[in-house]
Each structure stands twice: as C-alpha cells, then as structure tokens.
Amino acid sequence: MKEDLASLPETRSQDAIGQPDETFPLLHGDALERLLQIVGAARSGVFLDQLQADLAAALADLAVAIKVQGLAELQRATHTLSALAGTVASPRLEAAARAANVLALGENVAAFGTPAASVLRLTAQLSAEIVAFRMGKGIWSEGRKG
Amino acid sequence: MNRTPTAVAGRTTTILLIEDTKSLQMVYRSVLEGAGHIVHLADTAAEGMALFRNAEFDLVLLDLVLPDRDGLDLMQEILSLRPETVIIVITANGSINKAVEAMRAGATEFLVKPFDEIRFLDAVRNAALPVPARSVRLRPGVAQQERPLPGLPMQTTEATAGTFIGSSDAMLRIQSKIASVAKSMATVFITGESGTGKELCALAVHAGSNRANGPFIALNCGAIPQDLLESEVFGHVKGSFTGAISDKPGAAAAADGGTLFLDEICEMAPALQTKLLRFLQTSTVQPVGATRPRKVNVRIVCATNRDPLDAVRRGHFREDLYYRLYVVPIHMPSLRERHADVIEIATAALMHFSAEEGRSFQELAVDVKDLFLRLPWPGNVRQLLNVIRNIVVLNDGTMVTMEMMPDDLAQEVGIAADLGSGQTVLPKDVVLDRLVGKTLAEIEREVIEATLNFCGGSVPKAARVLDLAPSTLYRKMEGWGIAQKNPA
After folding, report:
1. CB B288 within 8 A of CB B231
2. Tell me, what DSSP letter sits at residue B132?
3. What is the bridge-based pairing of β-strands B294-295 and B284-285?
4. Dihedral angle at the C-alpha atoms of A73, A77, A82, A85, nearest 10 degrees?
5. Tens digit of pLDDT for each residue in B101-121?
6. Nearest chain A Cα distance for residue B89, angstroms
7. How far, in whole angstroms, is CA A75 from its chain's centroid?
8. pLDDT at position B292 over 80
9. Which residues in A have their CB inside 8 Å of a CB on B?
10. Which of B23, B95, B97 shows the shortest C-beta gap to A5?
C-alpha cells in the first residue's frame, strides 16, 4: 500500500476535530442532558457519580503517568479521557486528550509536558462544571439527596 | 403482549460488553437495553474471557484499551475459541491503527469513540444480522461457500435458483436467466434496491455453475475502509505495511476456482477500480508487497443498488470497468414489483423462523395478509423477513394476528394509507413527467425532503422508510444545509 497506514488515522482525526479554542464551551449541557435521558432519570445521579469518579481516576492516572513517564499509563489515561470528553461533548478536553494520546502512542514523551498539563487543567475544570451542572439541576444519587 | 418497542428492526441480541470505564459502560448498556438487547458486562479482559467461556453471545463489544490486557490480544483469543464470533471493536482516537489491525484479524466492525447513539445501534444491528445480509463478511482466510441462509427467502439450504421463493412472472424470469447464465464464465452484474436479494442471486449463479464446489467469496466494497480494501481483495505479504503480521491471500486468490462476489461495486475507490480492471484483463493478482503476480481462475459477479451507468456518467465509476463487468445484467425486482410473492415469502419465513425459535406458528390471519399486500415494503424482502422474525420472537400461537404487528409497521400502515388516499398519489406517468429533466441528485433530494416532511422531520424514521443509514441521511442534510429535528 502506498500510504503509510500508521500515519493516517491520527492526522485525519486531528484535522477533522480541529483544535477548539477557549471560545468553545468546556461542557455542552445539551449533550449531557441527552446522556441522562439515555441512562434514565432513576440512574442519572449514579451515572454522574460514576462519570466524575472516572474523570477523577483518569486524572490521577495521568498525573502518576506523567511523574513516572510510563508510556502505557499515558496512553491509557489519555485514551480514557478522550473517550469520556467526547461522550459528554467537551470538545476542548477531547481535542487536548487526543493530541496527548497521539504523542503517547508515538512514544513522544519529550513533547508530552504542555499538552498533558492542558489535559490535567481541562479535566479538573470539566469536573467542576459537571458539579455545577448537577447543582443547577439538583441531580444527586440516592445517598446524597437533600 | 410484552413487546420491546425498539427491537422491531431485528431480533434480540445477547451482547457481551467489555469496557472498563464504568460511566461509558452505563451509557452503552442503557442504549443497548433500550433497543431490546440483552447485555452482559465485563470490566476487565479476564472477566470478559471468563464470561465468554461460560456463555453463548451473539456479539462481543470490545474496548481495545483495557486495564489488564491488550484488547486486540483478547480478541484473538476469543476468535481462536469461537471463530464465528461477531466482534465490534470500540476505540478512541489514536488507537485506530489497532482497530485496523483488529479488522484484519477478524473484527466485524469498529466504532471510534466518542459515543454516537445512532451509529452505535446501527453497527450492532448490522453486525447481528444473519451473515448474508451483513455489510462486511470476509474473515481472513475464511471462504464463504454454500451455506445455510437462515435469514433469506430460500426453501432449502441449497443455493440454487429454483429455490428462490416467488412464483411471480418477475421471479420466474430471474430464475430462468440465472439458469441460462450460471454455466457460462460470463460476468454477471446484479442491480436492485437494498434487500431484494442480490447476494442470494449471486449465490444462485455460483451454485448453478460448474464451479459450485469451489469457494464463493463475498466482499462488500462499500463497507470495508478504503485503506483496507486493496488488501482485502488482493491480499498482502507479511511485513508489507504496519499490521501485516502474516501473509494473507485476499478475496481474489481465496476465490480461485470459484466465484468472487463484489457487492456495492460502485463504492469502490478509483485507484482500486484500476487494479480490478487489470485483474479482470490478466486474471492475475499481486498481493500488496508481493514481487510477482499469481494467476487465478475466478468468476466475477458484482452488484450495486445504484444505477451503474449514472455512476459512470458522474465519473465515479470507470467506463472501461463498467463495460468489462456489465456483461450479463440481472435486475432484482423490488417487492413492490412482485407483490404477488409477498404472502408466499412471508409464510415460508414464518415456518422457517418458527422452527428455529421453537414456536408453533402455522399461518397468517386474513387481515394480516391483506395488510402485507398493501404495504410498500421499502426495505424489500429483508424488511419483510425482519418483521416476520420480530413477530415470531416476541409472540407465540398458531396464527399471526394484527395485534402481533411490530410498532414500526404501524407507521408503514399510515404511509400505505396515505398513499392510498389519492391525495398524494399521482399516476405513475404524471410523476415521471414531473421528474424528467431533473438530475438524479435533484430527484434524490426531493424524495428525501418529502420523506422527512412525511415523517415529521424525524431522521431515524425517514431513514427507515428510505432504507438508508441515518448517518447517510444526516450527511446529506448537512450537505444541503437542512436543519434536523431531534428525534423524540
């Protein structure tokens, strides 16, 4: 095959996604509402608990991965964050996590610092926005109602 | 009656979902269960493997990045245990290379995260279809030969033209044509709408030929990523590109001594059309990375649901390739064009699925027959079979009654009633006069817009009526700048 398959998907994905700037919202509330519809009202609180827990876990994993410069850990954490961000429609975090994931998959640890810092910052901000969203909607799991 | 409303398009599927991120797991599970599927969850590769060993699943949804093991590695173990397993790989950006490897290693489909509800359900529905109706059906090294066809209108498992169900004039003509051309080496070009049985026709041509004992290899040119298609058709040698971990013969070589069926031929990329033309002219294949070509003896049967000549006019399909392939055309009639066969097909399918599902259905009630004869069946035989399958799975008894009709069919009834009201139906020649002079693209847009209006702006409903993937419709609407309404 003339094209180097290994180089294609990342490039295309990045082109397709672009790099959303600061004017993009960190969280699209409509998309999150749709996810809550999908999981159902009864499980909305549990779902949001789980979402926050997954974000927190990935954040912690990423921090550890950066510290120990573990490639597999970097790949896994950025993969998870990319998927989570995409699912809740957070284009800024998604793009940052994807870019970091590409670097991790390319074993380009030297260039990882800046995008990783961006991913850490945006993940923390997204978690805060989800909390704000929950407060606005009054969605809590059974154990935390009232 | 206890019916799962959204499971109407197909039977209930038992799915093993292996995904370690709990919140994503919850979303996938909710969507799948909402569509009537049964979902078993695994957080890790080890847990997934344990479940897989102890139960039967129709489908495995597999995240490639798992905490305890590489997903690709897990997939290979699953396929080594049960090679027929249908696996959909889920991956996020950056692991697409792995997804490509996964497809080569036998995955049926891959979905790129983030999650898209419609695409997700489409992929599951497609993957869960019986093999001949599915979009991608070539496993590396596995030739598709004559085989039982549980989901298609055949009275026996013998893939012979005589076993097509239907005694309408249209079907008799098709059977006669197949019998005439089967013994020759001539290339057969099958056209017809989706769901009319083009692959079945190809199988019948193969079964009636002198090479019936040879392999029948089906390849859907539209469903395989273009990056993979050359390798799928012509094969590759180990090390020729990233992920080429072993030699692979390719469909053309695998079909040596038999028949190569190229479905959705008009979707083939121009570069590959050139290679296909060379293959047809020289009867030799040269796998990617190979230094020497190899001679093969293959009969080509191809199919499309488009107008191939129009594809040539638009420059999407090579004219020389068109004339090379368009030797013996066979047009599969839509179910609307052979309404007389509807009851015959429905009854045969009812008996077949009843036996398969352990039900006792024997016949269709008179008003059901009447309804079936009035419906437009835009999805053709495939749609009719899905309806019968749905009825059989969700009900029991000796007679199929109106109460057992799937919810989606109610919409079809509404369409049929409206079409019969005289308000919207114009004489055929008047309709055609109005359309003559317009390009096919303009007509397509008109039909799509009218269908969207008819369906209250619901893209999924319109997609069902048009027998298109919702994603295709969204793409077209986006291209035309048409705003979409969110489905309820």
Report:
1. yes
2. G
3. antiparallel
4. 180
5. 676 667 777 676 666 777 788
6. 14
7. 13
8. no
9. 1, 3-6, 8-10, 13, 17, 35, 38-40, 43, 46-47, 50-51, 53-54, 75-76, 78-80, 82-87, 89, 94, 98, 101-102, 104-105
10. B97
pLDDT of residue B89: 84
Please report residues of A whose CB lies closer than 8 A to that of B227.
Answer: 1, 3, 5, 8
CB B12 within 8 A of CB B38: yes
The ipTM value here is 0.81
What is the Cα–Cα distance from B277 to B258, expressed in whole angstroms?
A: 19
Q: Across all residues in chain B, what is the average pLDDT? A: 76
Lowest pLDDT segment from B42-51, B209-218, B272-281, B453-462: B453-462
A63 has a pLDDT exceeding 80:
yes
Provide the mean pLDDT of chain A: 77
Terminal CA-CA length for chain B: 24
CA distance A113 to B311: 50
Buried b (16+ CB within 10 A) or exposed e, B329-362: ebbbbbbebbbebbebbbbbbbbbbbeeeebebe
Residue B408 confidence (pLDDT) above 60: yes
Contacts of B95 by beta carbon, 8 Å cutoff, 6+ apart? A79, A101, A105, B64, B65
DSSP per-residue letters across B204-262: HHHHTSTTTTS-EEEEETTTS-HHHHHHHHH-B-TTSSTT--S-B-HHHHHTTTSEEEE
Rounded distance between C-alpha atoms, residue B203 and residue B332, angstroms: 13
Q: What contacts B51, CB < 8 A, 6 or more positions away?
A: B16, B40, B42
B window 197-226, beta carbon within 8 A of A: none
Other Cβ atoms less than 10 A from the Cβ of B108: the count is 23
Say what the pLDDT of residue B241 is.
63
Predicted confidence (pLDDT) per residue in B244-287, tens digit: 666 777 888 888 888 999 998 988 888 788 888 888 888 888 77
Average pLDDT, stretch B307-334?
87
